[in-house]
Every structure is written in structure tokens, then in C-alpha cells.
Design a protein that fits this description.
Blueprint (H helix, E strand, L loop, with lengths): L4 H15 L8 H17 L6 H5 L3 H25 L3 H15 L2 H4 L10
Helix pairs in contact: 1-4, 2-4
């Protein structure tokens, strides 16, 4: 095992798929589509809830949210692995980019898109 939990998950997913001969199905297109589908299932857990309800799910809802969140994460990790994307580096780069587009002194307390200010 690695000392990095994301690398550990990536390796475990590689082994999981290989043991089932699923690698041939795990094309970037298929993984992206599965990721979107799972994100939709996660969103469905919040559909029709009030803001307060969405912030305090009951135990059954939380179990489903946790499972759907895991599905989203696992498909994203698998997709990134197939395309050679370092998710941690990409996330850091995106935060830097967002910092330039959304300077705190200009956008504090605003939900406007960077093209609107």
C-alpha cells in the first residue's frame, strides 16, 4: 500500500476492475457517463427537501448519501486514473485559478459568477 489514501484507492480500483475483467468497459467515455449518472443519484437524495432538511438528513438518508457520494468518488478516481490525471494536483491548480478569478476582496459574500463583476 501507498502512504497516500488516493493512491491506495486508485490501486484498489485497478485491482478490483482487473479481477472482474472490467477494464475493457472502463473507457473514459463510459466512466464519465457513469460518473454523471451517480452524481444524479446523489442529487436525487436531496430533491424536494427544504434547505433545513438537506442540512440534517436522517440516518437512512445519510446512508444513501454516503453510498452515492462514494460511487461518485470512485468513478472520478477511475476516470482520472485512465486519463493520467493527478486529481490532487488538478484540484490545487483549480483552487489557484479560482483564486485569480474570484479575488476575495471583490467577491466576498457574493454568489455572482466571475464574468459578472
Amino acid at each position: 500500500m501507498h502512504t497516500n489514501p488516493l493512491e491506495d484507492l486508485t490501486q484498489r480500483l485497478r485491482e478490483f476492475a482487473a479481477a472482474r475483467d472490467w477494464d475493457r468497459f472502463h473507457t473514459p467515455k463510459n466512466l464519465a457517463m457513469a460518473l454523471v449518472a451517480e452524481a444524479g443519484e446523489l442529487a436525487a437524495e436531496f430533491q424536494w427537501l427544504t434547505e433545513a432538511q438537506s442540512a440534517a438528513p436522517d440516518a437512512d438518508q445519510m446512508a444513501r448519501i454516503r453510498a452515492e457520494s462514494a460511487d461518485v468518488l470512485l468513478y472520478l478516481i477511475r476516470l482520472a486514473d485512465k486519463l493520467g490525471v493527478d486529481l490532487v494536483a488538478a484540484a490545487h491548480a483549480k483552487i489557484e485559478d479560482n483564486g485569480r478569478r474570484y479575488p476575495a476582496d471583490k467577491v466576498r459574500g457574493s454568489a455572482k459568477k466571475y464574468t459578472e463583476y
